[in-house]
Write a structure and sequence with these properties.
Helix content: 25-40%
Largest sheet: 3 strands, parallel
Strand content: 5-15%
Number of domains: 1
Order of helices and strands: EEHEHEHEHEHEHH
CATH architecture: 3-Layer(aba) Sandwich
CATH class: Alpha Beta
Length: 159
């Protein structure tokens, strides 16, 4: 998935000292952890290099993080090959034009609710929630429920 506009609402806060801040949604974070508990892989493909992105990836134990990634499709294709997958076995969540080639290539291309119109037009699924506001969690729940993995994951919460 993309980061800015997907895991965040797309707002960049540049502090007086030049450092940057981002706001991440905890529901999205827990959704990523559920995804990982189901044995699935997570990758971040961001057009910007950002310390907050790296910190969040570390917190969520996301192994595949690609920053300064201006042409995402070649990176995505290489990762798909490296993981021994086919495009049909992948999903990608994006919000802006740099995400469009990957959304079209992935087996399940997703646009967040606040994505640009062109991205929504080519997506297989458009979320109800906006980026940074639970869109990732929505997608995780949707895919895990559709694939029959959700009930097993819920057992730990329904003791």
């Amino acid at each position: 998935m993309d980061v800015d506009g997907v895991l965040t609402d797309g707002t960049l806060i540049i502090n007086n000292d030049g450092s940057e801040s981002k706001s991440f949604n905890t529901l999205d974070g827990h959704g990523i952890r559920l995804w990982q508990r189901a044995g699935l892989k997570v990758a971040l493909l961001s057009g910007r290099a950002s310390p907050p992105t790296r910190h969040r990836a570390e917190q969520l134990q996301i192994q595949y993080v690609y920053e300064d990634c201006h042409y995402k499709l070649p990176v995505f294709k290489k990762l798909v090959q490296q993981l021994g997958l086919t495009p049909e076995k992948t999903a990608y969540i994006g919000d802006d034009l740099p995400d469009l080639p990957v959304i079209r290539y992935a087996g399940f291309g997703i646009a967040v609710a606040n994505a640009v119109a062109q991205v929504k037009q080519h997506a297989d699924y458009v979320t109800i929630h906006a980026g940074g506001k639970g869109a990732v969690r929505e997608v995780v729940e949707y895919i895990l429920k559709q694939s029959g993995r959700w009930d097993d994951l819920m057992k730990r919460y329904l003791l």
